Amino acid sequence: MTEKATTDMPHNKMTVRDVSVYYGAKQALFDVDLDIREKSVTALIGPSGCGKSTFLRCLNRMNDTIDICRVEGQILLEDEDIYAPDIDVVQLRADVGMVFQKPNPFPKSIFENVAYGPRIHGLADSKQALTEIVETSLKRAGLWEEVKDRLDEPGNGLSGGQQQRLCIARAIAVSPEVILMDEPCSALDPIATAIVEELIDELRQQYTIVIVTHSMQQAARVSQETAFFHLGYLVEHGATEDIFTNPTDSRTESYITGRIG
Ligand SMILES: Nc1ncnc2c1ncn2[C@@H]1O[C@H](COP(=O)(O)OP(=O)(O)O)[C@@H](O)[C@H]1O
Ligand SMILES: [Mg+2]
């Protein structure tokens, strides 16, 4: 193998091995293995109820907040086991941030929505440093130009698409490595959706992104890798282009051609 081929080997940001999830006695995910490639967008697709959100929540231990939920298996962030007993879960959720389906800004100003995380994580040692983090985060989220003159106004006074970008800025503000997004555009109109999709494409220069989407068109537009889930199983994972043009499993093919789902 040439040296170039070696250095071009994709790096895995997260490694999921043999993950099963139960809600009480009901098993929702079965022995899932997945390598999540660094600085790329991985789309999770599959019919409603197949376990996409459950899987996403495993990646930053959000399932811990659901009493009856139990997670088995191993998940690494780089080479750190995120389910190890000594893991600081608050820090983990900063490193692996999350954006939800419905934009959920805090009932605070635009500035405070973004400043909150850096403040509680002690990331800024002066007012000026904090202001810089807020500005940089809003710029990276593609929102700065629209809000720079009204940072003191309430975050929830923005349009839906702007609120979702504010939530992305809030996630970015604590310097995450991975950003999880659970159907981030499903409450947005087509124009706001297009803006957020463009943003996701820019963000992958810097962050590893895992996005749940019920839209195969969206998966095809924004992702480089796609994982197809069905009835709690990860059926197939690979380059998005291959999954959509040349799936190997008949269940994947049925789903992408619209026969199941
Ligand atoms: N909080 C919960 N309590 C009990 N069962 C749940 C909970 N969340 C999800 N489930 C169940 O787990 C399965 C997978 O759900 P989910 O991960 O939400 O699927 P998807 O995001 O693909 O629609 C479904 O059968 C769902 O009913
Ligand atoms: Mg879901």
What topology does this entry show?
Elements: H1 3-7, E1 12-23, E2 26-37, E3 41-45, H2 52-58, E4 69-77, E5 80-81, H3 89-95, E6 96-99, H4 110-120, H5 127-140, H6 144-147, H7 160-172, E7 178-182, H8 190-203, E8 208-212, H9 216-222, E9 225-230, E10 233-239, H10 240-245, H11 250-256
Parallel strand pairs: 3-8, 3-9, 6-7, 7-8
Antiparallel strand pairs: 1-2, 1-4, 4-5, 9-10
The structure holds adenosine-5'-diphosphate and magnesium ion.
| Overall pLDDT confidence | 95
Number of DSSP helical runs: 11
The total strand number stands at 10
| Helix-strand string | HEEEHEEHEHHHHEHEHEEHH
The order of strands across the largest sheet is: 6-7-8-3-9-10
Could you give me the name of the CATH homologous superfamily of the domain at 12-104 and 176-256? Answer: P-loop containing nucleotide triphosphate hydrolases
Q: Helicity range of the residues?
A: 25-40%
Shape: globular
Estimated radius of gyration: 19 Å
Unreliable runs: none
User: Which architecture of the domain at 12-104 and 176-256 does the CATH hierarchy give at level 2?
Assistant: 3-Layer(aba) Sandwich
CATH topology of the domain at 12-104 and 176-256: Rossmann fold
Q: Kindly provide the name of the CATH class of the domain at 12-104 and 176-256.
A: Alpha Beta
Structural class: alpha/beta
Query: Sheet bearing the most strands, described?
Result: 6 strands, mixed
End-to-end separation: 42 Å
Task: Provide the β-strand percentage band.
Answer: 25-35%
What are the distinct ligands in this entry?
adenosine-5'-diphosphate, magnesium ion
